[in-house]
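Researcher: Let's run the pair from yesterday's discussion. Sequence first, then tokens, for each.
Model: Starting with the first of the pair.
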Amino acid sequence: MTTLSELFPAGGGGNTADFVASGTLPNGKPVILKANGQVEVVGFSTTSQSIPAGSEYVFNTGSRARNPIMAFDPNTEGKFVIAFKDMGNSSYSVALAATVSGTTISFGSETVFYSGAMGLSAIEFDPNTAGKFLIAYQDEYNSGTGTSLGRAIVGTLSGTSVSFGTAVTFEAADVGDISMSFDPNTSGKFALAFKDIGNSDRGTMLIGTLSGTSVSFGSPVIFNTDSSTTHSVCYDPLNAGKFVVTYNRGTLRAKVGSVSGTTPSFGTEVVFSSENSNTFLNTAIDNITGKTLSVYYTDGYAKAIVGTISGTSISFATAVNWKNSLTYKMIIAADPLNTGSFIVNYSDGADSNKFKTIVCSVSGTTPSFGSPITIVNSNSYSNYISSKFDPVNSGKFVTTYDDVGNSEYGTSAVGQTTVSLTNLTATNFLGTATAAYTNGQTASIMLKGGISDNQTSLTAGSTYYVQTDGTFATSAGTPSVLAGEAVSATSLLLNGLATPDEIPSQTSQSGKFLTTNGSAASWGTVAPAGLVLLSTVTASSASTSDIETTFDSTYDSYVIVAVGVTVSASNCILGFQMKLGGSYSTNNYKFHTGTMQSSSSSYQSMRSNGGTMAQLSNELASSSQDVAGAVANYTINISNPSSTSFGKTAYWQGQALDRNTSGGAAAVSIGSCYNTATSALTGIRFLADSGTISGTFRLYGIAK
């Protein structure tokens, strides 16, 4: 039998053309054709940021502003709050409202929220409640007692003013290194990490609840039994009740936390940097992908590393060196509107400690950095830095600091990022470089239809796709760009084995049809019509019955038919839960079920704005009661389960025998539910609020 390598011997072959190289072209790497006729290697385009002229505004001209922190209200365009220690007002802790419009910032009046000095602190808005924010702060010396205890206070932003509730003490001993994050999937819930100085500097976590103008806390849980510093806590936007905490205990470490009520629990500790002198650790999370990005300084290098959360664990890719000199006071912020976009503010120890900012973009698990710019117009430095992206205006950010070059006045500056993560489109892939070329050189490019014989580690016979970072892989990326067929471990036939005139192998292709993309032929399948049975699950006296593994983007809509469902307990409620982000959600079900009974002329309803499951029925008669045929039958419709842009919805209708009332009552129920989590749905769990269930559950996909 003739092999691919025999059909296409080594040596590449013709089908090349010459182009002018735009930038460096590595040997064998995929290139794109630019609009000017030059070629460029596939990868990330340059990221950049700017601080427009006149975009720097002083909010406290009378004195120094120490420990400034800031946060945007995600529910009100252009509004943010600044808090700081006002050295010109008895070192009182104050806050003020601010508004950014274009590159202009205006400020409201200062409000004293504590007649004392705040030290290390954090501020965050509750994303689920407009205008509500929380300040957690170190009470410096507790009015002269010498104890820097931990306090928290709820603030309300209204127009151009702020007001406050009553401060609550969350730790009566010394605290330090405070970090805080709100759960985007649960209103008012947040995680607070701090160094408990009064307990041997142990890393400690509290789960708190904001309600109105009050705040309360659960019991503290130690997540690090040794001394730790530089804590960063970030809630996972894709997995309800999950968060990540990173910290420094000589080596850099991370844990994934889970929340039940107001009690946190933790997975296995992961060391992601064991190098010496790890300092200035700071972590942010991408609200779109759920990946973390940590920046830190060690052994003469500023580094960045990407983490990926899975269940109760986190894994890390290879760290990237982005600066090879002293870098400190690093503050990172994630752009909530652009996938993989971050800014890092820092003091440059190799350039007179100047305060600078740099953009980082992440694709997959690879961070790349643009060119830094000096953010303070005086080219001086800052002792305290806080930065946040505007959650409404794409790429806009505000940085707040004490400007040492201007009497340490409190200052805010508006910035704008320009981030394009890749130059690859669905149509601009040209071929591969036949050798290494530098900018401006005439480059010979192997075009589609030719053999690129300068590859490595390919699997002969496998199809490869161009990835956005300039590599080849056997699975399609976004956009999906076909590279070709591997002829050998080092040779790739660009854009497929077959030409439109060649027929690929017919082996194991029964029932399929021949199709072409214009350059290569392949076998396709006829899409089914109507309802397509995907799986059947039968439960017998089971606590739960799960349908999993079949939800994906193949179908926009799914139907579950529940047949002959019985329950073991009397007068129980039948319902279901959604598997979101890898685990079954036990909260955030907003539902309404209406029931009509043969034994009553009234309409009964059940509803919840945050239940533990979606309730299909009112109280059911059990199979053990004297009701013949005490079974329930339901049809449940689910749409767009694979989406990660919005919460998950379902609606249903069905029939059951209700209660044990003189032989039972026929009941018809209709209802719908909404779960606020935006994670992809990958399973449905049926259960009763007591006892066991039996019955058959069939999952159908509705063909597009």
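Model: Moving on to the second of the pair.
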Amino acid sequence: MGSEYMNRELSWLKFNERVLEEAEDKSVPLCERFTFVSIYQTNLDEFFMVRVGSLYDQTLLPQDIRDNKTQMSSQEQIDAILEEVRKLNKRKEKVYQKLIEKVAKEGVRLYRMDQIEDEKKMERFFQSEILPLISPTVVGRRQPFPFLKNNEIYAVVSLTTKSSKKVRLGIVPCASNIFQRMIEIPGEKGSYVLGEDLILHFVSKVFPGYKIQGKALIRVTRNADIDADALYDEDLDYREFMADLMKQRRKLAPIRLEMSGDLDIGSMLMLDNYLGLEEKYVFHSEVPLDFSFVFQIQDMLRKNESLFYEKRTPQKSPMFRDGRSIIEQIKEGDKLLSYPYESIRPFLRLLTEAAEDENVVSIKMTLYRLAKQSKVIEALVEAAENGKEVVVLVELRARFDEENNIEWSRRLENAGCQVIYGLDGYKVHSKLCLITRKTDKQFECITQIGTGNYNEKTSRLYTDLSLMTANTDIGIEAAKVFRALAKGEVVEDMQHLLVAPHCLQNRVLDMMDEEIEHAKKGEPAYIGIKMNSLTDKKIIDKLIEASCAGVKIEMIIRGICCLVAGVKGKTENIRIISIVGRFLEHSRIYMFGTKERRKYYIASADFMTRNTVKRVEVASPVYDPAIQEKLEYIFDTMNRDNQKAREMHEDGMYYRVHNDEEPLNSQERLYEDAYNR
């Protein structure tokens, strides 16, 4: 009998494997397959920076830290990760090479330097356009080993001289804002080489007087896992402290070395020594070390529509009418937007209307990630300039978006907004907006609760839900959340909203217990969950208990899932699917109970321990019957997907769904629905 638990990190690698499968899928348009190869790589970069970095730090501690589900030690997890990544990278190399061959037939040819017959013209180009811009280093007593920037490409060369056989390392940065990464071969339209390949090929011109013993391209990934709360001193300005922390992150210890080319053993040992890396953290590659150039290839082929997904544009929501006040429409009944199928514009109009409405006294929001050009910020700035009270919690610890958020916080402050910078010990990940109006001596609230960030760009790429309601009870509880945040506190109890860290996990467990009780009485019982990740052991164990009691459980989990479905005697009543498709599945839906007594919630929280007990998260009940029906339809459509869905089996592996039903790609179906309304 297999285990009902799966290690978190290995589960994440299975998710990234599903991303890679989209790059392998011949039914996906050619240029879109490039996108999935690139996503696979950037996902893996972040995984090493954060997860492997954290595990490595744990191995340095005196205590033995183990995964609470599989009991694997930190080192055992790292070893398993490294083994699995090597396997997946071999698949990545194969699919990349196939894609490059296919795209050549479409008119964009990418060559390696050893494939070019006429080297002379490339040498002339190198001498005139590249060489003057290069800043090489020869490592020696007076020239220390240079700092290698995170995830940037360098050429490394083993050097000797006529007078000395001693090997020295030469380092050449290959990144440049001056010359293009993809360099067109002179006189050969549509034929290209990569800048780093050109530099490596003619690297002897960079080091005249030296003999080249070996050469390679390398890319270093650095640990980015910094605990801001552990380092923060209350006497420091928090925003400036976070800005300094971002500078520190760039200098953290290497956690992975990728390389292509040949270096002698002595030079490799020297390089590993300088970087402080064991050999097992070194990954050899037969393909480029960075795939960001594939978007340049896509741009070159943009006119060939057959190489891309059919163009889709977010549609008008049927719940809103043009030419009428958004606030008044919400007061008439709850509204739900479903991204990317429906446009974010009604919500942006709500903010703009609130900024200009003389009856609006305050706007309060929690901000986690924003677009580079944010209309949300513009509306909040306008509201503050119009004399409204604008209170904004900006989470400066939104990983890899910290610098963006620091800049936005400065702009909001300069406009007169009250800015709160998160809480001690808790990230604020909730998507909550509260607009308060005063009319005829009465206060009324418009509350918006979302599953995704207030980001216009991602609202076209991620599937998310946004609920807008004039429900007084929800408005009062939202106000309670903001009062707590303003005081640096968290709420302890709620009647309607589920608010982590203190009243989400326990309420979810209670609702699961209710279903268990129904099942024990021989009554139908049901739990339906859609989210990104499941790691919370308390919730996992409760799901196992529910399955054993006979509760029917359906889960749509895109990424990490530490629960294995279909294990006899444990999880036989649980079905888990993952959908990786054109759009990133990001919405969270919780459903408890059979149809006639079902409770519906949308939420910002996955069932991960970091969400349920270490962050401020908000889940909102959905009371409107029409919106309940819409959530039901979304969930059911995805559950019936037999084109992009992979179902987890009892061995913990994911397999494509095969059945005799009509072909159904849930994302495409939901878009068709939006177009056909």
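Researcher: Give me one sentence on the second I can quote.
Model: The two ends are 49 Å apart (CA to CA).
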